[in-house]
Structure formats: C-alpha cells, structure tokens
Amino acid sequence: MTPILSKSDAADLVVAARIRRGLTWAQLAEEIGAPVVWTTAALLGQHPMSKHQAELAAKLLGLDETVAESLQLQPSRGTDPARMADPTIYRLTEALSVYGPALKELIHEEFGDGIMSAINFNVDVARRPHPDGDRVVITLDGKFLDYRW
User: Fold this and answer.
1) Which of 1, 30, 39, 73 would suit a FRET pair with 125, their CA atoms being 20 to 30 Å apart?
2) pTM (2 d.p.)
C-alpha cells in the first residue's frame, strides 16, 4: 500500500498544474463553487475539501486521485517558518505587529471581553484604484466570541 500524498506535495502539484494550464485561483474557485480565498487556501493545504470539491479540483487541474485524496485530509494548519520570510507574508505580519494592539483595544471597546474567531471567519482580497497606486484591500470578517466564565 502506498502512503497518502502529503498536503504540501499535493499543493506543489496543484500550483504547477494551475500555472501550466493557465488557470487563475478565481477560475478554480468559481468552478468549485467556493470563495476564492478559501479555495486557494484549501488547494495550498490549509483546509480540507469535500470529496466532490477535491475530485472536481483534481479533474480541472488534470491531476489524479492521489491529489484528490490528499485535498480531503485534515491539515496541520500554519505556515512553514521559511515562508514567513516572503516579503508579502512578512509585511502582513508587520502590519499586525504595528496595528494588532490597537485593533485589540478597539475590538474590546466595541464588543467587550472576547476575540474574533478565525474559525467562523471569512476573508477577502480586493483591488482599489488610488492615485498613488492601486491599494490592496484585505477584509477579515470573524464572529465575535465573548469570554464566558
């Protein structure tokens, strides 16, 4: 019996197939019927896909059932420390380092003692034209979870 393909190996195959087939993440998400950020994260190994979604993604990408099998697995979520040095990821971390304490204070002032869920959560990325250069707009939309004692 062969081992199940790791989620990182499956992600590498997904990325290569997407590029070689000239597909965008948005096109894949539309075909799968799921939000683009979630779909991208799932295909990169951060979420489990349903059997139907995984089989459809593999078919769209011309990949076999070993990839579809891997896409259905529960992930070990998080980021490889080496990826944290990527400039885009590093700048997002920097933004949260600078503004995280202020956001925490504002959340507590508005909602009370609690946190924003990253499980009951949506995220979106958009482009907004601006005279000084287009802006990246990232929306984090998480359910407020109050601490209950």
Assistant:
1) 73
2) 0.83
Copy the structure tokens of residue 92.
Answer: 């997002």
Domain covering 84-146 assigned CATH 3.30.1160.10 in the classification: yes
Question: Residue 76's pLDDT is what?
Answer: 85
CA distance 49 to 71: 6
User: Can you list the alpha helix ranges (DSSP code H) found in 4-148?
Assistant: 7-21, 25-32, 36-43, 51-61, 65-71, 87-111
Q: How far apart are CA 35 and CA 25, in angstroms?
A: 10
Query: Which candidate in 6, 30, 65, 94 is catalytic?
Result: 94
Instruction: Please indicate whether residue 91 is annotated as part of the active site.
Output: yes
Q: Is 110 a catalytic residue?
A: no
Average the pLDDT over 103-120 and give the result: 94
Task: Tell me, yes or no, if 94 is annotated catalytic.
Answer: yes
**Cα dihedral sign for 129, 130, 134, 140?**
negative
Give buried/exposed letters for 48-69 (b at 16+ CB in 10 A, else e): bbeeebbbbbbebbebeebbbb
